[in-house]
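Quick question: who can interpret this fold?

. . .
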Amino acid sequence: MIKRFFLSTLVVGLATSIIANEAQPLVSFVPSAATFELSESALLFDLSEKAAVHTVTHLFAKDLERVTGKKPAINPASPNESTVIIGTVGESRLIQQLVSEGKLDVSKIENQWEQFIIKRIKNPLPGIKQGLVIVGSDRRGTAYGLLTISEAIGVNPWYWWADVPVEKKADIYITQDFVSRAPSVKYRGIFINDEDWGLLPWAANNSEKELGDIGPKTYAKVCELLLRLKANMMAPAMHTCTGAFYSHPQSKVIADQYGIIMTTSHCEPLLFNNAAPSEWDKEIDGEWNYGTNKTTIWNKLNDRVQETSQYENIYTVGMRGLHDEGMRGDYSEQRKVELLEEVMKDQRDILTSHLDRSVEEIPQIFVPYKETLNLYNLGLEVSEDVTLVWTDDNFGYLKRLSNPEEQQRSGGAGVYYHFSYLGPPHDYLWLNTTPPVLFYSELMKAYENGADRYWLVNVGDIKPAELGMQTFFELAWNVEAFDAESINTHQAEFLSKIYGEKHKSTFQYILDTYYRLAWSRKPEYMGWERQWDPDDTLEQLADSEFSFEHYNDAQQRLTDYANIASLSEQIASTLPTSQQPSFFEMLGYPVQASHQMNRKFLLAQLNHELSAKGQFAEANWAAQQSTEAQKIIDELNLQYNSLLDGKWQGMMMVPPGLVAKYQNMPDLNKFDGVDPIPVNLEPEANKNQLDACIIADLEAFEFISENQIHSISLLEGIGYDWKAIQLGKAEEPTQDPSQLNGPRVEYDFAGVDQKSVTVHVTTIPFFPLHTGVSNQFGISLNGADPVIFQNEPTEFSKNWKDQVLENGVTATATFQTSGNPQDTHTLTLTLGDPGIMIQKVIIDWGGLKKTYVGTSIVNK
């Protein structure tokens, strides 16, 4: 029995949290029956509420003024006939009065986490004829209720951080009541990191000139953004160039005023930033070595917990070295395990000495990051109430998740994920090019395996990661609103809600192309150098493996980038002046800058190739074009930093990281006295028609699953040709890949006139799901015993570096054939460990002009 399984499509709105039901929106701008007129209302709340309710009530008042031009009264001396009543269950006397009088039922949200009710009530309190009650289960629930209405009336969460304009409306009406769902993930936040080249210079020269640092004014804007995105926690910037978060005392007060929970990165125990000289000075404090300097370290940690104990925090337990280093001290691995267990016991004692609750009730995380994962795997004991926060490999691939035994832990699990990273084999600090289908696949894999407690995403400088952050937090709020299809269209829908539905299909094409081209090679990697590599020859700028000569892919890449850059400029030219800055920040700049970075390096490569052939005039033209590309990048940066009278001055540059070279110009050959002659870079129509080689069409594979347990599907939005076959979902049971009658995909082909073929199957380089499983699949031809492959790379090995730079790993198998070109052959790929994604299949019997089968061969 042959079955095809595709992921179901769930139609959702722009943000499910602002839609009360699928038929009717929460807000209308024209009156109708049983509506509440928001535009003429006052705001009323109990002054005894927590600070976050005060803060967000005033934000909401400003939002109403932004839309209507009218500033609502807050807690007026005499009642207003139309009033928004704001409060928190158990905190507000106003809410308690409505409940006790039987006018409000809060049973659906009472004692729940971050939920809210929006309800219209007639004559709720004396003197008020029309009431709109916004009640939260806790302080953030109340805040989310208010800001849900803000978004519904047209105040985009990115109104300030990405300058999305607010459309004026004379009248606003609330059309129905609404009860929110509980968030899918309990703790949802960002880590501001590698802020050296964007957020720090911007803050120091703009929002906080008097401080010259990232401080409370900047964090106030960050916290507001997080609340509008329905996030609830933040790990602050912590590089040595930045003043430590707690070195500016008002910063922690600001976070609390917005109801934002403070957390820290994997290397900051108990909120202590040992990378900051103001926190840990080696000359004064000695070595960061718990085995030899325990008293000093203990005192520092104790002081920090005492200082912060009145606020809502999530505490990192454990210890690494200074900043992002391994544990200090010449210890055996077993001694490190013992020392780390001692550290965590002492840290938990510190917590209970300052927080008036049991240690099991204090939110704590342990992050097995880099070398710490090795110690955990050696048997490190972590108290079961501590949340295990699993990490990706810094390049988007989760290294492991909770196994069945770990999924029973009371502390649950979470994820630390990257949209930006500084480290080997190469930084990607400049642009956000992580495709939504990739992070959806990894995060949902985590969620289905119990990682629903804590999601932290490294966003670098926040800008230009707006689209990624928007998608990430909508997913974290409601995972059920998305599947692998809708996640890929979400960002185009988000943009079309701002800039016009007529552009939706164009936005989708631009984004698909933008992410697809970066999938095979991020813009930051186009210099082809590697960072901190043992082979120092690889640390120099080099020509790419894209080909002008053989496969047409260099020309096609340039053409594709030129197309989307042109489309983005065309759309921008049609937009009102008020919308152009935000469009440039969120889409125009990333697309155009990516185009020019590719022009810079690919045309330098063409210059080298033409020079070697003696085509000096053409080589001079290629050199001119490469140089022009760098000039345009500089102009784009200037344009960005000059937007809105310099609002973002200092925010945008091509970050050099610490040792990266891609921001530099490659060497160019220039020939004096030779006039440049343009080169035709149009892709040649038949250049990809490879002889004695088939690039299999993934859509032509037949999906076979007789047990109906395993789902095999064709995904769009990931892979070299922007589609991939998923051999089952990761949460499904493991199969024996050596069996040809199990779940599988098959592809028929003919034309082989040789006695053997070599099959190259390129998969997406996922790690095994957790301990005890691998990531096997099988390759078979014509019923032969499958050749079994598995990919378990060691982080920082050459194999792993190749994989993350190329977003692929290739398995190769050779099979004997009849040599009769009339014979039909059947290629079978068998499921082993579910979740494998096949992104390219090449069947070769002598047609490949080089062995590289990853990024440099495009579909016919």
